[in-house]
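Give me a protein, keeping tokens residue-aligned:
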Amino acid sequence: MDMLLRRLLMARIRLLFVVFIVCVPMEVMGKAGNANVSSSRPSVVNIGALFTLNSVIGRAAKRALAAAVDDVNSDSSILKGTKLNFIIVDTNCSGFIGTMEALRLVENDVVAAIGPQSSGIAHVISHVVNELHVPLLSFGATDPTLSSLQYPYLIRTTQSDYFQMFAIADLVTYFGWREVIAVFVDDDYGRSGISVLGDALAKKRSKISYKAAFNPGATKNAINDLLVEINLMESRVYVVHVNPDSGLQIFSVAQKLGMMSKGYVWIATDWLPSVLDSTEPVDTNTMNLLQGVVALRHYTPDTDMKTRFLSRWNNLKYKDRKGPAGFNSYALFAYDSVWLAARALDAFFNEGGIVSFSDDPKLQDGNESSLNLSLLRVFNEGQQYLQTLLRMNFTGVSGQIQFDPDKNLVHPAYDIINIGGTGSRRIGYWSNHSGLSIVPPEILYGKPSNTSPSNQHLYTTIWPGENPEVPRGWVFPNNGKPLRIAVPNRASYRDFVSKDKNPPGVKGYCIDVFEAAINLLPYPVPRTYILYGDGKRNPSYNGLVDAVAQNTYDAAVGDIAVVTNRTKIVDFTQPYMESGLVVVAPVKEVKSSAWAFLKPFTVQMWCVTGAFFLLVGTVVWILEHRINHEFRGPPRQQLITVFWFSFSTMFFSHRENTASTLGRLVVIIWLFVVLIINSSYTASLTSILTVQELTSGIGGIDSLISSSEPIGVQDGSFTWNYLVQELNIAESRLVKLKNQDEYFSALKLGPKSGGVAAIVDELPYIELFLSDSNCAFRTVGQEFTKSGWGFAFQKDSPLAVDLSTAILQLSENGDLQKIHNKWLTRAECSMQINEVDSSRLSLSSFWGLFLICGLACFIALTIFFCRVLCQYRKFAVEEGQVAEVEEIQPARPRRALFSGSFKDWIDFVDRKETEIKEMLGHKSNDNKRQASPSIEEHSHA
């Protein structure tokens, strides 16, 4: 009994010490005078290990650590002349006992401690090693917060859960899920991992909808109550992050509750593969619990070193008296931890480092000798040895051992496994270099990093219930509460939505569309409709959307416009009706005038057309004048001919025949142009005289903004905010109108009699208003916004996505149009004002024809004058030859025709073609006759 009391007293004293060193930060003092300094290469160096021996990870780690120490001590190439003395203590999966054992371990002057496997114990022990400057190499503590600067002497020789949680986030995104439920143990390990998972999902636009935490020692009943609770929730994707030794109990309870069937998704972190890999032979009952589960396992490359280690493991595993030590990935990390300590120690000695310990004066001064704290000594070269550890780079059985600036192992990667049958199969890999892939990570490391969604690939997965299809990931909550749907209680345009005495209490076009879409969903959706508003005036639709965002309602169904500000706080379905803002205004009929025949063409078009008539007439006259007697005569007659021929071509009634080839070419092209002009004129004039023309003082939204007249808007609509905030229209100009009667009277009165100049509203309302008012008004201008109507749901609601698909299906099969015809079919009337100027033809529509005709005239005139010029030059040359002969013969008077060059040219062009040819023929004969005597006279002379 005395011995027991003494042990309890000592335990309490040590506990007080731990609390003291954790709560009160202590600084390392200088080396004491009685420091124990060893030689540069001592014969023995103590290395400790602390972990839970009787655990899934501990049993494998113990075997691996012992093998690693034997391998180091038997390897002559490392730690020459120095042996590792390995000291193991059992933390017994207890923070208190683990702390006590850690204190007992460091009493042995260890230069490094390997472990622990528990993140919770690692948090506490880290304070001890920080004080004593002893590096702590943890092969199993995966808590991401252990990488913080608070723990400088802790080095993680396994992968941090930080990367594992991002791998799970990529899995969730890959399969298209938006929400998950996290099931985790409520300790440092569980809380920190799930916290990182929430951040990782947020970056992928997903989230943790509920955090289901339970105590580390939770009973089966407590787990049962927890799973029953989450089974009533919407999400069916569960991420299980628990301890290996108790995690299987969750799946045992889940199977009894029917939660391992079709439609459920279970994703387990690396604890589950550790359990399965450690169990030999395979337990069929355990595998039956896990059918369809997806899990992550630490990825270790398949190297020759790893193969040799596994071969040795298989030869040694049955020699343990306590039973087989099952292998898992943590055994590889534990084995490499010993080699990391040994290689770093060897480098430490090669650099001239020594191993020395000294008492901490602060510990001695703060405590009495009865506490035996003098046995706790500071590793003087601990900081130097720590830096040596962090710069190590070698290949171990688990892969490359190298640390990044955050003290994490480089190249974090995981196997993605799918459990089925009596085993598991790998469906892919994850690495922070390339995300999800079916190619081993080490192959992708040589390529550029690519984590784009299109580059993510996995093999086919079999889900719970032997389901090969990817589960939807959510169901409508089975908690007995129907969906709360808010419906606007309208005072106008009740065809869209209104109150009804019969179930379900509402009716209208919007309700029918919603009900038809709900009926297409593959699952039932209990719902109840709640009227929003008093029915005496239209409710505020912004307030309705805000109520959905604040969880007052689950959804809102009605004529709700999808606008930018609303999409920021709720999710909308696919629009089921197109909409947009238009301007409707009073119009008056434009009466036809006596000058209506001039309206088809613009002034510019009339001028250019008339000019071309004269141009073509002149060109044809020039081309025909020399050869066609119908284009000759006195000047007055020729002028009349030009005008007559020009304008008679408009009716194709010209009586003058064209004789020249060039003239015929010009006339043919011109007649084609006239045909087009006549046809266009006739069509435009017919439209102007037969179609009713309307006009309004408002030309559209631009003219409405520039004016100062009042504008009508529908009560409760977003139009008010849009006109004020986006178009900067003064609120004093806006008038709220409650129903169609107020629309009609306000437009009839006009702005001068207390009405409005125009009304701005959404197109579906205006269509009904115009048809109900016998088309007394018209829209002016164009639709100046584009939007649509949709159903509003709370943010990230999966029901919005499914209903969007259903609405598209309604549109494709024609049911959406049938619902529209049922509620909104009205007498059609012309919506748009027919603007007078819109039917007038301008020069821009015909400039191509005029260009072709002008080019034809230019080319014809050019050919004509070139030919005339050649004739004139020939005539002038022959006349010159006659002049030379006359110098020999007696002189005789010259003809007056060539007395002046320009007059000669005009006279020559004006002559008939036959006359010119005859003159040229006579001149040629005369020249020959006159030239012959002259030649004879010269020869006689």
